[in-house]
Write a structure and sequence with these properties.
Layout (H helix, E strand, L loop, with lengths): L1 E5 L7 H12 L5 E5 L5 H13 L5 H19 L2 H28 L4 H22 L3 E3 L7 E5 L2 E4 L1 H12 L7 E5 L2 E4 L5 E3 L5 H12 L3 E6 L20 E3 H9 L10 H6 L4 E5 L8 E4 L9 E16 L9 H11 L4 E2 L9 E7 H14 L1 H5 L7 E13 L6 H13 L6 E3 L6 E7 L3 H13 L2
Parallel strand pairs: 1-2, 1-9, 2-6, 3-6, 4-7, 9-11, 10-12
Antiparallel strand pairs: 4-5, 7-8, 11-12, 13-15, 13-16, 14-15, 16-18, 17-18
Helix pairs in contact: 2-3, 2-4, 2-5, 3-4, 3-5, 4-5, 6-7, 10-11, 13-14
The structure holds aspartic acid and magnesium ion.
Aspartic acid (ASP) binds next to loops.
Length: 457
């Protein structure tokens, strides 16, 4: 059985919804179909909530626009005999949504739990519409079986319970049934309160279901032809990548490719279920296939991406006498705070330490390092850590990257010739990825340069 996930743009207009219908109805037998909210709606739901919380009565206009958009879609895609039924089902949700906004407006505050309820309406409504459109469509309510638990104040999937509940709910579909599932939304396994899997989380809903059911494939239907060798808005001659390994796709996503939500890959990787990226607006394009093993005709280097909003922390060590393994101490400290560390080389960890982190983790990382080395800082053996922001991590992902020292040297040379300073670099941490930390403003210049060197275009 297949699991298909359709993103916001795929369910965002009458035209695209008709494509979805065609794609789903061409599947013989049973399938699970996960859908996002109508394109752009989640952003709109959040923006409207903020307006209401600030006491801006314009929120009412936004609410009307949300209602109108859903009514319009229903009028154009749902058959006549189902119209009034579907309209009233969606209207019930719209009324409840409006009541939530009224509460936020009156109290002038937007607690996180209320925002979670508000954003849940997007997928709740889109799934009703899609289920009404496709032959053999039957809607299931994912918060009943996608469960989360708290982890450092964040909601993460409760895999064990979710696995069990998915099997119970979707394990035996009717003949030819297409189970339509709202993506993204979930409930807390202890309190039952509505939660979600994070922005972009519908992909993850698809992956959890595919893994629990042992699906033959997870198809992610989106608005691009697949993963590309670079962001085509920045690199004009970027190419579609036919095939990636799970690890490569994970690295591309981690370093800025916005094709799938990174956590998606873990559950399917673990169960060895292939992922295929396909385009709802160009369904005949071959797409990108992701599996566990490299294929014979794979490109050696798959792509170049850049992750913005990176910071670099440097610690200068004046005298290393009596300081035991400063690198290890620093890494332990950072990992205790669940800081996301972008690997960079530390060629001489007894004179200088470098850590690249995302901008959002920069302040806490700096604080933790200052605390960890407080005795050495006060005795003058170590200088206070220095933070440099406004950087980007440019990553090259492919096979056997550790051994590509000639390519790495050529890239370093070309960047310098172009006046782009490499602040830190990593070639040895992973076999899949080379990383260059550069000035963020230069990354749109560096990407085409590196791309042309690698792909010799
Ligand atoms: N609608 C949610 C979002 O925009 C989830 C998703 O589309 O995957 O983040
Ligand atoms: Mg979306």
């Amino acid at each position: 059985m297949k699991v298909l996930k359709f993103g916001g743009t795929s369910v965002g207009s009458v035209e695209s919804l008709n494509n979805v219908k065609k794609i789903v109805e061409s599947i013989s037998g049973e399938a699970v179909i996960v859908v996002s909210a109508l394109g752009g709606l989640t952003d709109k739901l959040i923006a409207t909530a903020k307006m209401a919380a600030e006491g801006d009565s314009e929120w009412l206009k936004e609410m009307d626009a949300i209602s109108l958009r859903h009514h319009d879609i229903i009028k154009n895609v749902v058959s006549n005999e189902k119209q009034s039924l579907i309209k009233s089902a969606v209207d019930e949700h719209l009324t409840e949504l409006k009541r939530n906004y009224e509460g936020v407006f009156l109290l002038r505050s937007l607690p996180e739990k209320v925002l979670d309820v508000i954003v849940s309406f997007g997928e709740r409504m889109s799934s009703i519409i899609v289920a009404a459109m496709v032959d053999h469509g039957k809607r299931y309510y994912s918060p009943d079986f996608i469960k989360t638990e708290k982890w450092y104040g964040k909601n993460i999937a409760d895999r064990k319970l979710t696995d069990k509940l998915i099997k119970e709910t979707l394990g035996k579909l009717g003949k030819n049934e297409k189970a339509i599932i709202p993506g993204f939304i979930s409930t807390d396994s202890t309190t039952g309160e509505i939660t979600n899997l994070g922005r972009g989380g519908s992909d993850y809903t698809g992956a959890l279901i595919a893994a629990a059911l042992g699906a033959e494939i997870l198809e992610i239907w989106t608005d691009v032809d697949g993963f590309m060798t670079a962001d085509p808005r920045i690199v004009k001659d970027a190419l579609i990548i036919d095939h990636l390994t799970f690890t490569e796709s994970m690295e591309l996503c981690t370093f800025g490719a916005k094709v799938i939500y990174p956590p998606t890959i873990y559950p399917v990787f673990h169960s060895n279920i292939p992922i295929k990226i396909l385009n709802t607006f160009n369904p005949d394009a071959p797409g990108t296939l992701i599996t566990d093993q490299a294929q014979q005709d794979d490109l050696e280097v798959k792509g170049v991406t850049s992750l913005k909003d990176v910071a670099l922390i440097t610690i200068n060590i004046k005298s290393f006498n009596d300081i035991k393994d400063p690198l290890k101490r620093a890494l332990n400290t950072l990992s205790r705070q669940a800081v996301r560390i972008i690997p960079v080389a530390n060629p001489d960890p007894y004179t200088e330490l470098n850590f690249a982190v995302t901008a959002s983790d920069a302040e806490v990382s700096l604080e933790m390092l200052e605390k960890e080395f407080a005795p050495e800082i006060s005795s003058g053996k170590i200088e206070k850590p220095i933070l440099k922001g406004n950087l980007a991590a440019v990553a090259l992902v492919g096979i056997d990257m550790r051994s590509r020292s000639r390519l790495a040297a050529r890239i370093g040379h070309s960047l310098r010739r172009q006046g782009i300073n490499v602040e830190a670099y990593s070639a040895g941490n992973s076999d899949t990825t080379l990383i260059y930390i550069i000035n963020q403003e230069k990354s749109d210049e560096a990407l085409p340069l590196i791309h042309s060197l690698v792909f010799e275009l």
